[in-house]
Design goal:
alpha/beta, 2 domains, 4-stranded mixed sheet, two-stranded parallel ribbon, 13 helices, 53% helix, elongated
């Protein structure tokens, strides 16, 4: 056993503790060590060394190492800085498929849900597919299976599987409405009112109002409430999101409705 010297002035222990909570021995990578002037310097893997020490309760726990002999300090720095230069990052679809092959419960549940609507998860937006993999995973993580299920159901019912209807903004916008209004949001009304406008028109209206999911949620709510005997309350849309200057837009929305109806 050799003694390792961590060639790092600061190691964020908060990150180390977070990793310890989700420790997986199979995900541990070998530590890179430079044997220079009789001293073993860890120049890549300092976090790994700290994690192993914290979990085992000892700094004498053996770890796998790749040992480089006779490197100069500048060479160590160059290896550290450029080691990932030619590594191709994994795409979301690659990670998702690998998780399915590994039997990951969440990934398999999402896959089964999507396929129950005769759709497939894909790396590219094509007819009959959902390519916004990260988005549907985040919806599942934050809101759960039921809301993700109803979100996909509403989109399929409203736009009949149109490719652009499964963009991140549409998925997040519909999710926001479903989560905010629950059963008060009527599926048949949503289909008739919101489905009456094209994705292109919906996108244009959303961009005019605000960026991101709230722009799309507002555009959908405008369409839903138009000539509706039981309109949904605008303030409910923003509950729990902190103090934002959103309520100022409701009077504008009402004026727009009057103009359009007139």
């Amino acid at each position: 056993m050799v003694e390792l010297l961590l060639s790092c002035l600061f190691i964020p222990m908060q990150h180390v503790k977070r990793t310890v909570e989700n420790f997986d021995l199979n995900q541990i990578n070998p530590i890179k060590v430079s044997r220079r002037n009789g001293i073993n310097y860890v120049f890549n893997g300092q976090h790994t060394a700290e994690i192993i020490a914290m979990i085992s309760g000892s700094r004498e726990t053996p770890v796998w190492c790749m040992i480089y002999d006779d490197l100069e300090y500048v060479e160590e720095a160059d290896i550290f800085a450029n080691q990932m230069k030619n590594v191709k990052p994994l795409q979301p679809i690659e990670i998702f498929k690998a998780n399915c092959e590994a039997g990951n419960e969440k990934s398999l549940m999402i896959k089964a849900l999507v396929e129950s609507y005769d759709l497939k998860i894909s790396g590219a937006a094509t007819p009959g597919t959902i390519a916004a993999i990260n988005t549907i995973e985040k919806i599942y993580d934050r809101f759960g299976y039921d809301i993700l299920n109803r979100t996909i159901s509403l989109i399929v019912m409203t736009w009949e599987g149109e490719t652009k209807s499964f963009s991140s903004n549409i998925l997040n916008g519909v999710t926001k409405l479903v989560n905010a209004y629950g059963d008060r949001l009527k599926d048949d009304v949503f289909k008739d009112k919101v489905g009456d406008i094209s994705i292109k028109e919906l996108t244009r209206t959303a961009k005019e109002r605000r960026a991101g999911l709230f722009g799309f949620a507002e555009a959908m709510l405008l369409a839903y409430n138009k000539r509706n005997k039981y309109p949904l309350n605008w303030q409910t849309l923003y509950s729990g999101v902190g103090k934002i200057k959103t309520f100022e837009k409701q009077p504008k929305a009402v004026e727009e409705e009057k103009v359009r109806e007139g």
